[in-house]
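Below is the record:
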Amino acid sequence: AFGNQDVHFLQPRIFSNVVMAPFFAWLGVGNFQGRLASVFVGALAVVGIYLLARKVGGPIFAAVCALLLIFDNLFFVVTRTIRPEIYVTAISIWALYFILGGENSFWKLFTGGVLLGISLYTHPNSFLVLIAVFIAALSQVKIKQYGEILFPMILGVILGFLPYAYYVWDQDGANQFRDFWLQIQHRAEMLKD
């Protein structure tokens, strides 16, 4: 139920709830447990940025990049709050890691695409990340290679997004997705009992 109504939560921020669920199951429900899940995902983001920067510029460059990320004020805040921004950050870093090094590997590009598809139901800003990662990936290759790069990425995005699309279809399809659009527009008060 959503807001004491028989309506499910349909906004594209479900992934953070899935990640927090094991922490709540193991340690109980509370602010500390939710923040601990965010800190865990933030640590994954730091490891991802280190590996990504190591690909680009070596171990010293990677260490500096990881330290800059750790000491970034916004990163510090989102890593220690129960908000979905850290989830889209970590997923995007790992997607970029797989995609930028995967121009010769279908599976690396596909994995990066799946991560981008998952990020689409992590936070609404992930759509902008999706566009930025596609531009970054395409800027690394010649125009004649675009098809080889785009096909596995787009396939991965579609397959990564399918669980959320099915969830929304299953929960709100019979209602012509009215509740979904009202929640996306932050007009949940218009949901009828």
Summary: The mean pLDDT is 85.
